[in-house]
């Protein structure tokens, strides 16, 4: 055993519980003679649990035959705590029957020793039980440290991934005349809808971080088309539509759930419920639910946001148009959810206003 372990063993907190004062004094002397210094004596069994909770305990020497609360009762109280690492219990008893000893062991005692006991035997039993317990505690501590390090590393990796995602999203914003606030509004609204329809917290978080990449494919659209202030001609519009597949290609091939969801959204958020959307002309529930959700959040914010090439629609006008698109552009059930959540959606719109070009209401 290392010097550190020896020191730990000698300073281990040992509770001695016995209703007889003389027995407590004798046990204290025995343990001190063996080199232990942190010995706590408990004569009143009703005070045991309070004393036990005051500091971490490494070993309990417990008398069974006590008035009011027996040693059996105290063992059951300890078991009811469900502590991850309960200290070993060495039962001290004058009872010699097998049933008596078996009951103590079945309840959770680690070992027992009969009164009157041999002092050398007690010292050896105490040492051995402490050595085993200390080994378990050190292993537990090392496991906790390792789990903490893994958690920290996982958090760092997660933060790095999200930083990359944010920068990818910003790249698309700079190519288009979108704003960071648009991305915030549509991603928060998408997450709000997803949460309301039953997505779990983990998948909602993925939605929050994946949806900003819905238009990442616009990186591949030529400026003269992407930034054209007027209406696109059919050829230009066909090129513009390719941003959905370009985005899917950029995000393809990843094992990360975040990028997998982002790819699904990039490829499907321009599909329409009636099958008239692009790039694949999917209809109804063949469109991934993530794409149907983002379509609602993205279209509403695009309509009600001012840009250098367009004025914002009034909220009422945008909502009227969206109602008319139920079963055409939008999933009717999700659109109903959108309107149910309208107060929260408008609060998100207010919270993340464009700094200069504020949408008119």
UniProtKB/TrEMBL annotation:
The keyword Phosphoprotein applies. It holds the Pfam family Response_reg. One of its GO terms (molecular function) is phosphoric diester hydrolase activity. Signal peptide: none annotated. The keyword Cytoplasm does not apply. Residues 13-130 form the Response regulatory domain. The modification 4-aspartylphosphate is found at residue 63. Keywords: Phosphoprotein. Residues 157-354 form the HD-GYP domain. One of its GO terms (biological process) is phosphorelay signal transduction system. SMART domains: HDc, REC. It comes from the Bacteria. This is Response regulator. It comes from Caldichromatium japonicum. The lineage of its organism: Bacteria, Pseudomonadati, Pseudomonadota, Gammaproteobacteria, Chromatiales.
